[in-house]
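for the writeup, i need someone to sanity check this before i put it in the appendix. the sequnce is what the collaborator sent (i think, or maybe the updated version? ugh). structure was predicted straight from it, no edits. if anything looks off just tell me and ill rerun, i have time this weekend
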Amino acid sequence: MSENLTQQFGPQAPSADAWLVAIVENSDDAIISKTLGGIITSWNRGAERLFGFTAAEMIGQPITILIPDERLHEETTIIGRIRRGERVDHYETVRRRKDGSLVDVSLTVSPIRNQDGSIIGASKIARDISERKREHERQTLLLREMNHRIKNLFAITNALITMSQRSATSAQDLADNLRKRIVSLARAHDLTLPDLSGDVAARSSTTLFSLFDAVLAVHREDDRQRIQIHGSDAPVGGSALTSLALLLHEFATNAIKYGALSLPEGQIRIDLATDGELSLIWTETGGPAVTAPGPSSGFGSQLERVTVEGSLNGSITREWRPEGLRIHLRVPIENLTR
């Protein structure tokens, strides 16, 4: 290899070792070497960037400094494979930074041999895969949301047919009524979709009352006021508009499937107060008897937590009263237009 370098770059060509040192030092990945006893012997700049420790801090220290306590067994397994001359390829795990935070990494570990061929240590390449993990989690969440929405749409459509049938006087009347409800459902569904244009200036805005009217219109019946709204109005826009629309759509869907809107006599009262914070009280009556469910980890519950606590920075409580569910949503008023 040295002869080839000399032929290409002349007598001033760097040695093969110098080339390798430059490659290691300038790699974006953390490249570390260690003894079979787990003591660090080299630490490149990529390792400094990824883990936060300097080479001076880490050379001579045990590699276990980087390993969370619950994953220490991994080092024993890896060293065992290295001693047998095996290579560990793209092992995904978690390691600890200097500041105590955890980082998702992909590890490749190879044996280091001396001139006699004996294994004397290991070289380790650690690649930060945190963003890839987050992207995978976002994709999974979106797929679960899509599946959740589709299931809910079937349930809602079935309920709309029943609602329209109760008030229809003819086949044409049924078709017209159902068509109007489906149009309203499509409008509500559009409000619950995130803005994919990326144009912040073009984000929609409206008021709470208008938002409720758009989302809940599909669930009203012409001859009965099953959903009543009381209280004060306030502007809502930006990402809060989508978040609130999504929550209201979820509340109404659950009321259709399990609550007040699943029975003809059921009613919903919504009380709004906007003094310092949005206080939204959703009260169901006239539906089937309700009891508090067990701890829920379903997608609807997960989506609600992400929306309320994450997007809106608010809180939500439920009371499972014998006469019907009562939901209390609180959101800082300044977050309604963000």
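The chain has a mean pLDDT of 81. The radius of gyration is 30 Å.
thx in advance!!
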